[in-house]
TrEMBL record:
It is a single-pass membrane protein. InterPro entries: AAA_lid_3, ATPase_AAA_CS, Mito_OM_Translocase_MSP1, P-loop_NTPase. It holds the Pfam family AAA_lid_3. It is found in: Mitochondrion membrane. Keywords: ATP-binding, Nucleotide-binding. SUPFAM superfamilies: P-loop containing nucleoside triphosphate hydrolases. Its main location: mitochondrion. The keyword Transit peptide does not apply. Residues 70-107 form the AAA ATPase AAA+ lid domain. GO terms for molecular function: ATP binding; ATP hydrolysis activity. One of its GO terms (cellular component) is mitochondrial outer membrane. This is AAA ATPase AAA+ lid domain-containing protein.
């Protein structure tokens, strides 16, 4: 399949005054074949968000959620190192359901407590609990730090 792709790419022709733009995206840039990389004159590495940007993402994702008054976005952002924007979204969705599940569990036990049912505010501990259950798309951990450094060095070579 790679050979067919390369042959088709090499066969692309355009008129002198026309342009062809080829745009590609991958979450595994280090696995690209050298022949593909050679044909891509510009490359932009979009890495995982740092703590500051994770905090911005979390503030957007949680803007309409009921959060405890002492909720610490900075603490949450620091605890989510290695999470992509998509991972953070999945985590926030899981966390948002926690109070709902708790309420349903109370009602199923017949323990409504009051006639007014309201969901409690989200707290940092909800994220700690959900973090153990929500999978991270980008597998990154300390034992692979050397591999990550090597990948970045290889990436810089291709830029």
């Amino acid at each position: 399949m790679r050979n067919e792709f390369m042959a088709a790419w090499d066969g692309l022709r355009s008129k002198e005054n026309q342009r062809i733009l080829i745009l590609g995206a991958t979450n595994r840039p280090f696995d690209l074949d050298d022949a593909v990389i050679w044909r891509l004159p510009r490359r932009i590495l979009v890495d995982l968000p740092d703590a500051k940007n994770r905090m911005k993402i979390l503030k957007i994702l949680l803007a309409k959620e009921n959060l405890k008054s002492d909720f610490r976005f900075d603490e949450l952002a620091n605890a989510m190192e290695g999470y992509s924007g998509s991972d953070l979204k999945n985590l926030c969705i899981a966390v948002a359901y926690r109070p709902v599940h708790e309420l349903l569990e109370q009602e199923s036990k017949g323990d409504t407590g009051s006639t007014k049912t309201s969901l409690r505010a989200l707290k940092l501990d909800d994220f700690v609990q959900a973090k153990a259950k929500v999978l991270v798309c980008c597998f990154r951990c300390d034992e692979h730090e050397g591999a990550k450094k090597m990948e970045r060095a290889v990436w810089r070579r291709w830029q």
